[in-house]
Every structure is written in C-alpha cells, then in structure tokens.
Amino acid sequence: MAIMDAQEIMDLIPNRFPIIYIDYVDELIAGESIIATKNVTINESFFKGHFPGNPVMPGVLIIESLAQAASILILKSPEFAGKTAYLGAIHKAKFRRVVRPGDVLKLHIKLTKKRENMGIVETKAVVNGEKACLAELMFVVAERNEKI
C-alpha cells in the first residue's frame, strides 16, 4: 500500500511531467530511508530514441529516479520542509542490468550523512530482486527560489 501517491509527491518536489519519475512511495522513515516505485511503461517519451526496436531506460534517468526518491526522503525531514533538494554529485555509480518497459523499478534510499544543508545517500534501484543500479548521491538543500 502506497503511503504517498503521485499528487502528494508533486506537492513536495518540483518535478512535473515529463520528468517526474516516482509513481508512489512504499515506505518512508523520515530522516533515515525510503522505498519508492517507478513503473516503467512503453509510453515514456525517452523510449522513442533510446533505442527504437530495443527500448532501454537511460542510465541517467535511473539516477534521476533515485535522486527524486532521495529528494522526497530529504524534504520529509522537518529541518528541510518547504525547501528544494538539488543533486550535487554522483559517486560510485554502477549499472548492473538494463531496465525495460514493463519493469517495476524499486528505489531504495538510505541517508548516511547529513550536515546543515547537505548530505549523502546510498541508493539502489532494483527490478524483480535484481540490482539495476547502485550509486552514492550528494545533495544540497536550499530555499525553494534560492539560486545555488
């Protein structure tokens, strides 16, 4: 059962169609961890060019999905309420399997370090129990309309 639906997610993070990649949140422990879901469908606009006849979700969009799930986790922390989380760095990214239409991407995020307006999360994207992507992401949090 989802604890956050698409509308609640859009109320929290600024991403909108066609670049919102979280369908719902399965589990959330504020300040600690989140599991979110991205249902990968053939209707995704990126499949028109990546690759015709052999549709594969681009790795950069898997990372973006992980970053969006991390943003939800971060912005559900009381000290960051009403702010925006920005991706600051990607470390140790590894891609283990392709993601195709029909796959259900489970996004596992764990907050490992937090300081004032920045932190680090360990991330894992999983399809049917198989690791699709692993990465360490650094984030920076700022006021909604502040330029960083």
UniProtKB/TrEMBL annotation:
Record: active site: 50
GO terms classed as biological process: fatty acid biosynthetic process; lipid A biosynthetic process
Keyword flag Lipid biosynthesis: yes
Compartment(s) of residence: Cytoplasm
Pfam families named among the record's database cross-references: FabA
Record's catalysed reaction(s): a (3R)-hydroxyacyl-[ACP] = a (2E)-enoyl-[ACP] + H2O
Superkingdom as given in the UniProt entry: Bacteria
Main location: cytoplasm
Keyword line: Cytoplasm, Lipid A biosynthesis, Lipid biosynthesis, Lipid metabolism, Lyase
EC number: 4.2.1.59
Gene Ontology annotations for the cellular component aspect, listed alphabetically: cytoplasm; membrane
GO molecular function terms noted in the UniProt entry: (3R)-hydroxyacyl-[acyl-carrier-protein] dehydratase activity
Family: Belongs to the thioester dehydratase family. FabZ subfamily.
PANTHER family: 3-HYDROXYACYL-[ACYL-CARRIER-PROTEIN] DEHYDRATASE
Function: Involved in unsaturated fatty acids biosynthesis. Catalyzes the dehydration of short chain beta-hydroxyacyl-ACPs and long chain saturated and unsaturated beta-hydroxyacyl-ACPs.
Protein name as catalogued: 3-hydroxyacyl-[acyl-carrier-protein] dehydratase FabZ
Source organism per UniProt: Liquorilactobacillus oeni DSM 19972
Lineage: Bacteria, Bacillati, Bacillota, Bacilli, Lactobacillales
Gene designation per UniProt: fabZ
